[in-house]
């Protein structure tokens, strides 16, 4: 456990550096954007005077470095700032959306990870066989369809034609299990298909690599059937690379799901960030970027910790 | 040709399909019976086999011509972008692998930072800032997938850097550049080729995602993803204008992967980026 | 054509709804020469004392909950009438607030919170407020609320979208327990119409925080508001229009993706949808459960040729481009007939001041060639900026490019994202597209977009003759002369201004067939965004 | 009495369908119950393939294509997967070459040891665990009660190898296959492990097949020996016959490679090339008194003269390879001094001049990893020529050919990549590359330990010739005491990072020895079959 604790401490330190880099990069590229929050706020009816006044009010006339420093100072004192677009605290805007995003991500992960693992393991067990080839084509076909098309096909079939599911993912206030199922079925299915293929291929590769290890041969020579050799012996040792691939895939579930959020009108953080870009809402944009980066780092950390937990050699610090 | 003969059936199929699409990408614009932007029919979303081979699109343009014209974007942008992403990612990874732990750490953290910025939002910002153009799309997609390439290449390069033959070169007093380019690089080229295939698919998909957000190639030109997107309202009636480009994308990505899988003998590959 | 049939059907439906007493009243008023329907409203103010839309003929059903989708939502969503800038905002504002006046289907203004709206000189307006109106929090409506609501637009800190219009207010003062006076810097007969816009809806005196709450006098009380997610309104039982509204609850959402909006409508997840694509109408009508409502409007997407930049400042170039516009094709292919051909000026044929003697400019490549040659620009390459932000502009540009090739020049299409288009590209390139929402008054339209010093003089057009005509028309009492002046102005724009307007686009809304009580109001989709107080849900 | 194990005309093929090559040709042998057969041969001789076929197993890409493999009643070559799974581990068990790789790193030892017993349902978990503990005791494992709770990486290599024997014995199988079970072990450990194996096999009256390349080891344990070369049987005879009256020339060759020679070297000492004094080295922070946090080497001194070979001997973990890295500058020494040709040599390679780098060349143990598989032989040898001596084009080509001749390889090898070369050829190239630099000292780190006996002998011979011809100094690092004894002018024995004994080769041949040196010398098996039984167990 000491190893994990040390790892976490070290990672937190490095994460701060990474987050700083992200904030600087995002601030830099966002500064390339033409226009600013004042112009976007006033839109088509902007007069130069009004823009100038609003700009002053938003503090947009400060030099970029000063604005960055101010923002950073605020963040360090626990204040993520106020959205320029609607004057609400950024933390409040994000927290309501974050729970939604996490819910979508959670359901997707719950479904996609086991699905992908089963696909990958079966393909690895029968590597080179027809099953393996069929799975290869199947997983490739899954990634080969643009997700907006996939989502639209689902909507047409299950919402418009069959009327089984709602085309929009709204969760009523007094939602029961069934409501959740209905609301999440299609977005989760879409994302599962988008993500599983990659994870399945990685799982296959990782398991296959372990299958060539002498201890698997040993297990077979001890009289273990292939399935047991794979599940009991190879799989625990493939956990490291698998969780890594899973973590990378899942990190997509925070910021990468814009399209699913748009099509199912799901209020998640990805579309919040798109709004932030559109409105030139820098505090919100920065906060979203920080959030995604943190999410990514946490996932990678979880992956590394699971790899350590799964590997007694790393676990005991040997 | 020997390579082709030694391939498994799936590889041959992949190679043939890739060859077909590359042919379309190169000669498509000349083969198109109509101009890609010309409105040829009043009826929209015409089915296959009418006056127009693959029907008409959402404003009555010839779908066949638009596919012939648009394939080159779906082939060449991803091809170049994936090549750029893999080559720069690999080069930076090589540099990182032969540099000291501190430089390596800084580069790795920077790449982590880049990975964590969602590629679609990055594209949105960049296109809003600079306006969409083929070179910019290339740059964006290349930057988006470079850190992933870097991760893989670095993992491979660090492994190779610990091999005895690199140590031998070190004891000879060779420069870092020599170690990176002459000793390590040739040994990670093959797995990076596999990574390249994967990244090609990612770029194809990112491009179609961008077209969904209205950020794709400049109209009236359209890559295959944009064709799917602009005709999506024809999906309900099963219009070939949306189905055929979707099938084209699928066959391209599957073919590239089958080809590359067979080139590396169906071997495994290392972790992937985003 | 199907579209004609549809229009006829729509008109028929509307006629049904407006038969009976209300229709008769309007007719009698019209006969008395007091109502100027579908116009720039220069009507005597006392007419506004009449309440229109009082009793819909069909028996409305009470109760029910609907979900309505507009075409956008973001964190910029607002509850502040002064900040409302997108259709979602307009709908939300009209749901919660009421104005002094409100638009009717004939493009005029009916009195709302104002019981009477009178002026002798069109400069000083006397307003008597309706009695017994209460805000959602129970407070009574007072003239002070109106004064506050109007004058806050002049406060720069409010960053009002209507600030340019509010600049006309010289003074707004309380003149009695239920009356007030608005004094303008100069006469403006269109004030009652202008005040019907959502920006000038009435808020309670002293309200500064609009981030979570909205205290209005409108048909629905705010139940939930999450910017970029949803707005829920629940029936206001104390609404000042007796018997209204009908629904218990309205949930307002934004679905940016049009095909998702259509799918949601067809799958019954939403009951009304704003802004459908003409291409979707076939599907919607075929569904059996939903239908479309078409609103003829003067919304247009125009090509802007800046007069301060080369080569667009060349009059022959401008004419050449105008002849290159294949209007029929645009109307037919891009809008599937849901558009009206325009003649390079912003007045729609349905407008009473529409100059129908001005010959329609044809699609004429030969003449375009002639003018292009005259301008010495044959073979030129000119970039044209388009964006999804200006509806239809991307495809229009593609068609223009084709005509260009025939004519002998190359338009390089530069599509830029909708994001930031209005602040960063609109009017900033020699050749680019704009998109202008319907304006009720021609005076307002011309003053905002075509006068030499207009704030959004898109092409930078400077025509002293036009400016003089505009000023004269505003003060002209004689209807025939005024009409002639507006005719002349249309001709000037069509011949000389650096904008080309190919078509006016019809607004298409989708609705569940159980939705009743809806009719087009030409200021915008979803009944000029004010459907909330009118519609009910049939069993 | 019928044979317990009989193999008849066993044929194994490898490669994809249509391109098979036969890797085992019609091998036949038979064993009585309790007999031990040794399969001996070089790598690629098919010995492991034959052993595995006794389990009905062929590695991926191979298959048993002919013959019969009878164990008791069963023909292993004709069983299906389920039948085989029922027999393996219960009736026939396997002890793999590298226990470190054959134990699953992520599961506790006990789990793995008793797995086959549980799988086959021959006993309950508690029965199996007590049986395992009993076996641990029999195999002289330390703390037999608790060792099963550890993970594989937590016990030493020798212990793992014995644990693996326990794993094989848990079901008391009729036949055990030992596949080079001691090859990866240090000599001192090997003795104990061998002894444990021998005792246990005897105790359970188990039939055993012992695969090895080391005749001396085999002599201790086998009743009969089968000599293999290229998948064919050379000779199959009882052990004493093989040892004393070998029929086949190849067998005699093997025997002679093991024969301990009493020769030693005593070259004329030249001038000192490298002078190392009081070196400390290790990892981690270096404390103020110059000791590293994790010390590997402490206070090592050594002097190498031109034309001389200094041997460094020690077991794994003694720090002998680290010493080579310190001299090469790959691991900078923490303190102490190094002189190269009487000039101060900086500890870290990055601070050394090209000339200094050129003077010291290193040859690594494993030619597979020491040669870049992506490069051609010509480039591997040519690079130091260009780098140090600026040779290019034809001159370089010429010199590469000379180097290849020097290490007795055909010159046309220059155009081939090294992937397809044999182990011996690779090691020669490895050596030639070091010579290409024309160094004054070559550091040879276990250069023969990955090679088969006969090949290793040839390499050593070459090394001697080269030294005589080129008059270079060699530091020869090895765990094989007999090789060092015959090759080196001076010998240093390392134990846990310290010098145990440092003496001339002449003295080393006769003694006296330090106790640890004595132990090392006595642990090397001889061809005398009674040697093992005469040794006292250390454990």
TrEMBL record, chain A:
Q: What is this protein called?
A: ABC transporter permease
Q: Where are the transmembrane segments?
A: 12-33, 102-125, 137-160, 180-200, 242-264, 284-310
Its membrane topology is listed as: Multi-pass membrane protein
Task: Provide the Gene Ontology terms for cellular component.
Answer: plasma membrane
Domain annotation ABC transmembrane type-1: ranges = 98-303
Entry's Gene Ontology BP terms: transmembrane transport
Q: Any idea which UniProt keywords this protein has?
A: Cell membrane, Membrane, Transmembrane, Transmembrane helix, Transport
Lineage in the entry?
Bacteria, Pseudomonadati, Pseudomonadota, Gammaproteobacteria, Alteromonadales
Q: By its UniProt entry, which Pfam families does this protein fall under? A: BPD_transp_1 (PF00528), BPD_transp_1_N (PF19300)
Q: Where in the cell is it found?
A: Cell membrane
Q: Does the keyword Heme apply?
A: no
Question: Which organism was this protein described from?
Answer: Alteromonas alba
UniProtKB/TrEMBL annotation, chain B:
Q: Which organism is it from?
A: Alteromonas alba
- What keywords does the record list, in alphabetical order? Cell membrane, DNA-directed RNA polymerase, Membrane, Transcription, Transmembrane, Transmembrane helix, Transport
Query: This protein is called what?
Result: DNA-directed RNA polymerase subunit alpha
Family to which the UniProt record says this protein belongs: Belongs to the binding-protein-dependent transport system permease family.
PANTHER family per the record?
OLIGOPEPTIDE TRANSPORT SYSTEM PERMEASE PROTEIN APPC, PEPTIDE ABC TRANSPORTER PERMEASE PROTEIN
**For this UniProt entry, which segments traverse the membrane?**
12-32, 75-100, 121-146, 196-218, 238-260
For this protein, the record's SUPFAM superfamilies field holds: MetI-like
UniProt topology in membrane: Multi-pass membrane protein
Q: Which InterPro entries match?
A: BP-dependent_transpt_permease (IPR050366), MetI-like (IPR000515), MetI-like_sf (IPR035906)
One GO CC annotation: plasma membrane
Could you tell me which Pfam families the record lists for this protein?
BPD_transp_1
Its BP terms in the Gene Ontology are: transmembrane transport
Localization (cell) = Cell membrane
Q: Which residues form the ABC transmembrane type-1 domain?
A: 71-260
Automatic annotation (TrEMBL), chain D:
Molecular functions per Gene Ontology: ATP binding; ATP hydrolysis activity
Q: Which GO terms describe its biological process?
A: peptide transport; transmembrane transport
ABC transporter domain location: 5-255, 274-521
Q: Which Pfam families match?
A: ABC_tran, oligo_HPY
InterPro entries in UniProt? AAA+_ATPase, ABC_transp_ATP-bind, ABC_transporter-like_ATP-bd, ABC_transporter-like_CS, Oligopep_ABC_C, P-loop_NTPase
Domain of life, per lineage: Bacteria
Keyword tags: ATP-binding, Nucleotide-binding, Transport
PROSITE patterns reported for this sequence: ABC_TRANSPORTER_1, ABC_TRANSPORTER_2
What is the name of this protein? ABC transporter
Annotated organism of origin: Alteromonas alba
């Amino acid at each position: 456990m000491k190893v994990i604790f040390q790892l976490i401490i070290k990672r937190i330190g490095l994460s701060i550096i990474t987050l700083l880099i992200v904030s600087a990069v995002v601030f830099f590229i966002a500064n390339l954007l033409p226009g600013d929050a004042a112009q976007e706020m006033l839109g088509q009816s902007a007069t130069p005077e009004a823009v100038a006044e609003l700009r002053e009010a938003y503090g947009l006339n400060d030099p970029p470095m000063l604005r960055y420093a101010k923002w950073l100072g605020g963040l360090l004192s626990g204040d993520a700032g106020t959205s320029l677009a609607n004057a609400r605290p950024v933390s409040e805007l994000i927290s309501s959306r974050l729970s939604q995003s996490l819910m979508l991500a959670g359901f997707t992960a719950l479904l996609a990870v086991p699905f992908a693992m089963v696909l990958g393991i079966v393909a690895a067990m029968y590597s080179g066989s027809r099953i393996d080839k069929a799975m290869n084509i199947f997983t490739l076909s899954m990634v080969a369809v643009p997700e907006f098309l996939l989502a639209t096909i689902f909507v047409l079939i299950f919402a418009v034609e069959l009327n089984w599911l709602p085309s929009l993912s709204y969760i009523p206030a007094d939602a029961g299990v069934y409501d959740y199922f209905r609301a999440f079925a299609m977005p989760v299915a879409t994302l599962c298909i988008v993500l599983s293929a990659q994870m399945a291929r990685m799982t296959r590769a990782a398991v296959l690599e372990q299958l060539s290890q002498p201890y698997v041969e040993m297990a077979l020579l001890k009289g273990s059937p292939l399935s047991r050799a794979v599940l009991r012996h190879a799989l625990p040792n493939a956990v490291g690379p698998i969780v890594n691939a899973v973590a990378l895939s899942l990190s997509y579930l925070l910021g990468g799901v814009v399209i699913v959020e748009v099509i199912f009108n799901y209020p998640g953080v990805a579309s919040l960030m798109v709004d932030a870009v559109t409105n030139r809402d820098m505090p919100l944009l920065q906060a979203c970027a920080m959030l995604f980066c943190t999410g990514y780092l946490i996932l990678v950390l979880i992956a590394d910790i699971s790899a350590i937990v799964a590997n007694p050699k790393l676990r005991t610090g040997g | 040709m020997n390579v082709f003969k030694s391939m498994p059936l799936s590889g041959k199929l992949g190679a043939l399909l890739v060859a077909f699409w590359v042919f379309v990408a190169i000669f498509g614009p000349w083969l198109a019976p109509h101009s890609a932007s010309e409105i040829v029919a009043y009826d929209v979303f015409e089915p296959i086999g009418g006056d127009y081979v693959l029907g008409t699109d959402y404003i009555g343009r010839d779908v066949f011509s638009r596919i012939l014209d648009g394939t080159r974007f779906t082939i060449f942008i991803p091809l170049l972008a994936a090549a750029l992403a893999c080559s720069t990612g690999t080069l930076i990874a090589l540099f990182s692998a032969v540099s000291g732990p501190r430089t390596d750490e800084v580069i790795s953290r920077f790449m982590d930072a880049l990975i964590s910025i969602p590629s679609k939002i990055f594209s949105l910002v960049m296109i809003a800032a600079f306006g969409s153009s083929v070179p910019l799309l290339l740059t964006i997609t290349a930057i988006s997938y470079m850190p992933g390439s870097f991760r893989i290449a670095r993992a491979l390069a660090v492994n190779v850097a610990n091999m005895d033959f690199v140590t031998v070169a070190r004891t000879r007093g060779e420069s870092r550049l020599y170690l990176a380019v002459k000793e390590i690089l040739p040994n990670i080229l093959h797995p990076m080729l596999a990574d390249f295939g994967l990244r090609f698919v990612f770029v194809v998909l990112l491009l179609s995602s961008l077209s969904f957000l209205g950020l794709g190639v400049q109209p009236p030109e359209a890559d295959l993803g944009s064709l799917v997107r602009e005709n999506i309202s024809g999906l309900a009636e099963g219009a070939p204008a949306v189905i055929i480009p979707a099938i084209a994308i699928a066959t391209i990505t599957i073919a590239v992967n089958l080809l590359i899988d067979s080139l590396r003998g169906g071997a495994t590959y290392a972790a992937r980026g985003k | 054509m199907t579209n004609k049939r549809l229009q006829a059907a729509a008109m028929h439906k509307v006629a049904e709804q407006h038969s009976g007493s209300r229709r008769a009243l309007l007719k009698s008023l019209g006969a008395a020469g007091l109502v100027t329907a579908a116009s720039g409203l220069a009507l005597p103010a006392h007419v506004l004392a009449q309440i229109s839309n009082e009793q819909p003929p069909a028996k409305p059903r009470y109760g029910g909950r609907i979900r309505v989708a507009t075409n956008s939502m973001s964190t910029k969503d607002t509850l502040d009438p002064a900040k409302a800038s997108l259709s979602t905002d307009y709908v939300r504002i009209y749901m919660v607030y009421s104005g002094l006046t409100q638009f009717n289907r004939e493009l005029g203004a009916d009195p709302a919170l104002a019981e009477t709206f009178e002026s002798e000189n069109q400069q000083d307006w006397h307003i008597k407020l309706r009695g017994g109106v209460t805000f959602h929090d129970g407070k009574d409506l007072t003239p002070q609320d109106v004064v506050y609501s109007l004058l806050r637009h002049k406060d720069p800190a409010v960053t009002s979208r209507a600030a340019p219009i509010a600049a006309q207010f010289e003074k707004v003062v309380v003149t009695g327990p239920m009356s007030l006076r608005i004094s303008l810097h100069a006469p403006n007969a269109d004030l009652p119409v202008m005040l019907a816009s959502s920006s000038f809806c009435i808020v309670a005196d002293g309200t500064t925080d609009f981030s979570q709450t909205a205290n209005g006098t409108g048909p629905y009380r705010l139940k939930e508001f999450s910017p970029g997610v949803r707005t829920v309104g629940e029936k206001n039982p104390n609404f000042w229009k007796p018997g209204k509204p009908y629904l218990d609850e309205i949930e307002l959402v934004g679905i940016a993706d049009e095909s998702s909006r259509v799918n949601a409508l067809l799958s019954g997840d939403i009951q009304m949808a704003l802004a459908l694509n003409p291409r979707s109408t076939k599907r919607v009508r075929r569904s059996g459960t939903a239908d479309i409502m078409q609103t003829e409007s003067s919304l247009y997407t125009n090509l802007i040729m800046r007069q301060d930049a080369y080569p667009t400042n060349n009059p022959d170039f401008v004419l050449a481009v105008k002849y290159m516009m294949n209007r029929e094709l645009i109307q037919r292919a891009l809008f599937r007939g849901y558009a009206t051909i325009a003649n390079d000026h912003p007045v729609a044929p349905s407008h009473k001041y529409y100059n129908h003697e001005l010959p329609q400019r044809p699609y004429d490549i030969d003449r375009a060639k002639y003018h292009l040659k005259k301008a010495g620009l044959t073979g030129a390459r000119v970039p044209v900026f388009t964006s999804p932000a200006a509806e239809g502009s991307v495809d229009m540009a593609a068609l223009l490019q084709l005509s260009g090739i025939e004519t002998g020049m190359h338009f390089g299409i530069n599509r830029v994202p909708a994001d930031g288009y209005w602040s960063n590209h609109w009017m900033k390139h020699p050749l680019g597209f704009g998109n202008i929402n319907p304006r009720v008054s021609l005076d307002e339209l011309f003053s905002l977009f075509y006068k030499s010093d207009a704030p959004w003089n898109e092409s930078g057009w400077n025509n002293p003759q036009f400016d003089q005509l505009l000023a004269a028309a505003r003060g002209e009492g004689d209807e025939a002369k005024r009409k002639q002046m507006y005719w002349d102005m249309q001709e000037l724009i069509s011949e000389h201004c650096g904008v080309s307007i190919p078509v006016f686009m019809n607004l298409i809304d989708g609705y569940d067939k159980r939705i009743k009580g809806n009719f087009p109001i030409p200021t915008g989709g979803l009944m000029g965004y004010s459907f909330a107080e009118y519609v009910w849900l049939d069993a | 009495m019928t044979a317990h194990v009989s193999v008849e005309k066993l044929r194994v093929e490898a490669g994809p369908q249509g391109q098979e090559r036969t890797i085992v040709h019609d091998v036949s042998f038979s064993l009585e119950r309790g007999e031990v057969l040794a399969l001996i041969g070089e790598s690629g001789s098919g010995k492991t393939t034959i052993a595995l076929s006794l389990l009905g197993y062929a590695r991926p890409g191979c298959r048993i294509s002919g013959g019969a493999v009878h164990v008791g009643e069963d023909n292993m070559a004709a069983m299906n997967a389920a039948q085989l799974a029922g027999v393996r581990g219960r009736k026939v068990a396997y002890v793999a070459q590298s226990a470190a790789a054959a134990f699953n790193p992520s599961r506790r030892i006990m789990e793995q040891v008793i797995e086959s017993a549980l799988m086959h349902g021959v006993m309950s978990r508690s029965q199996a665990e007590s049986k395992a503990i009993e076996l641990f005791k029999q195999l002289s494992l330390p703390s037999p009660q608790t060792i099963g709770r550890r993970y594989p990486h937590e016990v030493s290599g020798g212990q793992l190898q014995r644990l693996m024997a326990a794993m094989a014995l848990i079901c008391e199988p009729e036949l055990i296959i030992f596949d080079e079970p001691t090859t990866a072990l240090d000599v001192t450990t090997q003795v104990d492990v061998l002894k444990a194996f021998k005792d246990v096999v005897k105790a359970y009256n188990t039939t055993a097949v012992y695969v090895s390349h080391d005749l001396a080891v085999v002599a201790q344990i086998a009743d009969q020996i089968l000599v293999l070369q290229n998948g064919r049987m050379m000779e199959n005879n009882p052990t004493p016959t093989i040892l004393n009256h070998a029929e086949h020339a190849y067998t005699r060759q093997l025997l002679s490679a093991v024969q301990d020679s009493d020769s030693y070297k005593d070259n004329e000492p030249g001038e000192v090339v490298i002078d190392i004094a009081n070196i400390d080295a290790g990892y981690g922070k270096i404390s103020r008194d110059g000791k590293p946090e994790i010390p590997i080497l402490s206070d090592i001194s050594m002097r190498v003269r031109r034309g001389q070979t200094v041997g460094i001997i020690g077991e794994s973990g003694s720090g002998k390879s680290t010493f080579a890295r310190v001299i090469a500058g790959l691991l900078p020494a923490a303190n102490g001094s190094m002189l190269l040709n009487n000039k101060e040599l900086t500890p870290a390679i990055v601070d050394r001049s090209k000339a200094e780098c050129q003077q010291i060349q290193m040859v690594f143990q494993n030619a597979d990893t020491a040669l870049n598989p992506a490069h051609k032989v010509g480039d591997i040898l040519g690079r130091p020529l260009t780098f140090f001596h600026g040779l290019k084009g034809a001159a370089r080509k010429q010199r590469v050919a000379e180097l290849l001749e020097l290490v007795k390889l055909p010159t046309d090898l220059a155009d081939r990549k090294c992937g397809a070369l044999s182990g011996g050829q690779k090691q020669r190239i490895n050596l030639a590359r070091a010579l290409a630099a024309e160094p004054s000292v070559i550091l040879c780190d276990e250069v023969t330990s990955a090679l088969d006996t006969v090949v290793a002998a040839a390499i050593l011979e070459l090394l001697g010739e080269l030294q005589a011809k080129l008059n270079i100094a060699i530091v020869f690092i090895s765990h094989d005491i007999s090789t060092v004894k015959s090759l080196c002018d001076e010998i240093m024995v390392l134990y846990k990072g310290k010098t145990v004994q440092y003496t001339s080769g002449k003295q080393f041949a006769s003694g006296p020895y330090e106790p640890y040196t004595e132990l090392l010398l006595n642990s090397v098996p001889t061809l005398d079959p009674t040697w093992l039984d005469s040794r006292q167990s250390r454990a």
